[in-house]
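Peptidyl-prolyl cis-trans isomerase, pasting as requested.
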Amino acid sequence: MKPYTLLFLLCACLFACSKPQYPIVEIETALGSIELEIYENEAPVTAKHFLANVDQNIFAKACFYRVVHLDNQEGRDIKIEVIQGGLFHDSIVDHLPTIQHERTDQTGILHKDGVISMARNQPGSASTEFFICVGDQPSLDAGGLRNPDGEGFAAFGKVIRGMDVVRKIQMQKEKDQMLLKRIPILSIRLIKE
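Structure tokens follow.
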């Protein structure tokens, strides 16, 4: 074996061994599946909460119900593109535990294309509702202007397979950002620890 081939193989092995291993969650819908890597080390509070919800089958009757794209945000100066999912009904969500808000300037996870983050009202009110970014959404980061409090949203993972499904969901028929036909989440499960 030539020395440079051996060096190349060694470098490739070191790179592969040094890449962090993250838990992977699969969300199965009628439109296809989405795989997410969950950043436990970077966003420990949010990631562990989401994984606990998956483990406890909290999302058994979850769905994708809200889609935001450039054409359905009349009157908004700062536009975003996301799909939102979770338990949908406030009467259910309001009775579940909430978590401490992890800002993006603490975690380093920015709202880039495919990033999953927690939906919330006030900081510290996130529970079960989540969204996936379609394209980069810097106005959702800490200091961003989409939310008047400037705290941003708590990002905790990223789509590694299935962005075509995310985009398909985003293009479904809606009225005032709410899907006319919600997309049921058939299953959401941990497929790799």
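Note for the archive: The first strand starts at residue 24 and ends at 29.
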